[in-house]
């Protein structure tokens, strides 16, 4: 998560502060929200639903990361050849190994 400033229903600034509490001490008179890591400046903010949406004019319209169910559906419905399936399995195995390495590194801190 990151802390962002909301101005005019848009993400105006991504603060350098890791928590909302810390950022609020810096500037108590501005609107700050916690946002997922993929949110960038220019995203729209809907206060009523407390959600962030990509802006049509934003240069960085990053998509939220896919869920496990979405990934599973993509793999099942991909209609890949046997060779492409092997390649995908190797890529996924490598990604999973990297995630485990990061988790182990975090646990050791």
Task: Write a brief caption for the model.
The protein has 109 residues and is of the alpha+beta class. The chain contains three helices and five strands; from the N terminus they run ββαβββαα. The protein starts with a strand and ends with a helix.
Descriptive notes:
By secondary structure, this protein is an alpha+beta fold. It has two domains: 2-53, no CATH class; 68-108. 39% of the residues lie in helices and 20% in strands. It contains three helices and five strands. The strands form two sheets. Strands 2-1-3 form a three-stranded antiparallel β-sheet, with helices on one face. A two-stranded antiparallel sheet has the order 4-5. A hairpin with a 4-residue loop joins β4 and β5 (51-53). The longest helix is centred in the C-terminal third of the chain and has 27 residues, at 82-108. The radius of gyration is 19 Å and the shape is flat. The mean pLDDT is 81.
């Amino acid at each position: 998560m990151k802390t962002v400033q909301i101005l005019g229903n848009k993400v105006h600034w991504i603060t350098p502060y890791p928590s909302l509490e810390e950022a609020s001490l810096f500037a108590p008179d501005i609107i700050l929200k916690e946002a997922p890591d993929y949110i960038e400046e220019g995203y729209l903010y809907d206060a009523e639903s407390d959600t962030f949406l990509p802006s049509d004019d934003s240069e960085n319209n990053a998509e939220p990361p896919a869920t496990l169910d979405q990934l599973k559906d993509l793999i099942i419905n991909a209609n890949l050849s046997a060779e492409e399936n092997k390649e995908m399995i190797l890529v996924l195995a490598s990604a999973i190994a990297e995630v485990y390495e990061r988790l182990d590194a975090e646990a050791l801190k």
